[in-house]
Structures are given as C-alpha cells and as structure tokens.
C-alpha cells in the first residue's frame, strides 16, 4: 500500500498507523499544532509486524512539537525513513523513535523495497505540490 501526496492537516494521529503490513509513505505534507480542536498527537504509527518505508515527507508544526512526536512506537520492530524534513530541517525519524523508546529495538531493515516507480518529488517541492493538488475538486497528477 502507498500513501503519497496527501495533506494531513488537523489530523490527531494514525496518518497512518500500520500493523501487519508493508506501507510506503512518501511525499506527504503533515501540518500540526498542539492546540485547537484537533491537537497533533503523532503521524506515523509503527505497529506490530509493520514495515514502513517513509520517504521525503514534510512536517510543518508548531515549535513545541519535537521530532520524537512525529512517530509513535506501537511494538513494531522495523521502520525506515529517508529524506524527510521537519520545519524546514532534515529530521532523523528513526533516531527520534529510538530515543523516545530506549528499551525497544527498532531497526531500519524493513526487508522490502517498494516494487514500483513512484511519483516522487524533491522534498523542497512536496509542500507546494501537495497544497496545489490535495483536497476536494483537485486532482494531482504525477511529477512533471
């Protein structure tokens, strides 16, 4: 399964939470804040026997949301992220997940590679492309 070019705004959590599956999450824009009707909890949930490959996702959050809050450990043992950014800066999501859960063993060895050529963007292009194409009545077509 693949999630790409989505705008996850005012979503509390589970964007997505994965259990027992291989999921490719790439080129998404996550916008979160601690206050409001839908306060940010986490985005990527690393559950039992999940094998998430995360690439070039962008988080724009209030300053009080740390990289450790972007993922949540739900007893998963594998997670891979490449090239994602948080508030304009490269972020080590696996390192943050490990730091938030020091008694857990989480490895980047997910055991699979997405078997398709995905529509991909440079991480600097993700936010404007998602904003231009996500939402009701809009259809974003693959990379130019």
Describe this structure in words.
The structure is a single chain. With 144 residues, the protein is an alpha/beta fold. Helix content is 13%, strand content 31%. Strands 2-5-8-11-12 form a 5-stranded mixed β-sheet. The protein has a 4-stranded parallel β-sheet with strand order 1-4-7-10, with no helix packed on it. The mean pLDDT is 93.
What is the compact description of this entry?
The chain is of the alpha/beta class and 144 residues long.
Key traits:
alpha/beta; 2 helices; about 140 residues; Pectate Lyase C-like; 4-stranded parallel beta sheet
Measured distance between first and last alpha carbons: 23 Å
Evaluate the radius of gyration. 14 Å
User: What would you call the structural class?
Assistant: alpha/beta
CATH level-four homologous superfamily name: Single-stranded right-handed beta-helix, Pectin lyase-like
- What is the count of helical runs? 2
**Shape category:** globular
**How many structural domains can be distinguished in the coordinates?**
1
How much of the sequence lies in strands comes to 25-35%
Low-confidence stretches: none
**Can you give the helix content as a percent range?**
10-25%
Q: Please summarize the sheet with the most strands.
A: 5 strands, mixed
> Assembly state here?
single chain
Strand order of the largest sheet: 2-5-8-11-12
């Amino acid at each position: 399964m693949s999630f790409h070019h989505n705008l996850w705004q005012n979503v509390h959590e589970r964007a997505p939470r994965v259990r027992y599956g291989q999921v490719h999450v790439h080129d998404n824009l996550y916008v979160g804040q601690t206050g409001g009707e839908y306060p940010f909890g986490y985005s990527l949930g690393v559950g039992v026997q999940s094998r998430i490959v995360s690439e070039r996702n962008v988080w724009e959050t209030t300053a009080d949301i740390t990289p450790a809050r972007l993922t949540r450990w739900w007893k998963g043992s594998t997670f891979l992220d490449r090239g994602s950014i948080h508030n304009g800066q490269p972020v080590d999501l696996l390192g943050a997940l490990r730091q938030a859960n020091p008694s857990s063993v989480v490895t980047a060895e997910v055991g699979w590679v997405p078997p398709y050529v995905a529509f991909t963007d440079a991480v600097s292009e993700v936010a404007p492309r998602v904003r231009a194409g996500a939402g009701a009545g809009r259809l974003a077509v693959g990379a130019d």
